[in-house]
Design a protein that fits this description.
about 25% strand; Beta-Lactamase; six-stranded antiparallel beta sheet; globular; about 160 residues; alpha+beta
Amino acid sequence: MNRWMRMLAALLAGLCFIAVSARGQTAERGSRDEAKALVDAAIAHIAKVGLDKALNDFTNDKATWTSKDLYLFVANFDGQMMAHGSNAKLIGKDMRNVKDPNGKLMTMEFIQVASTSGSGWVDYEWPHPQTKKFESKSAYIKRIPNFNGFMGVGVYR
């Protein structure tokens, strides 16, 4: 194989590697439909096993309750975090005064959506669980039946 053929083969191999790597990164991002499906499955899980067991599962059973970069969080209407699939250190914390880098009180908006509409989407900035860098996110929020609170799953955009 002459020098030009080797260079062309190396270039094509490099482009294939870049394409495969980019596709792999995209596949690690959850979709809005996947976020809604995870919330619906979690609501059904609460009905099946009870709130206390479900809260523990949402925080600790990563194999079942996380997918790609999607994870569940649960808070009561007083802003207290009850479960968090990415950062268990937030459990028990009052999140009402936590602001994103743009000054948005996202938990207050979560509470507003869940208590008035029952469900909906909220946009904000939050650290990505893998990179730890702030990224734009949309969370699907849904009120939990027979509980004074809500759950959510965010999609990094």
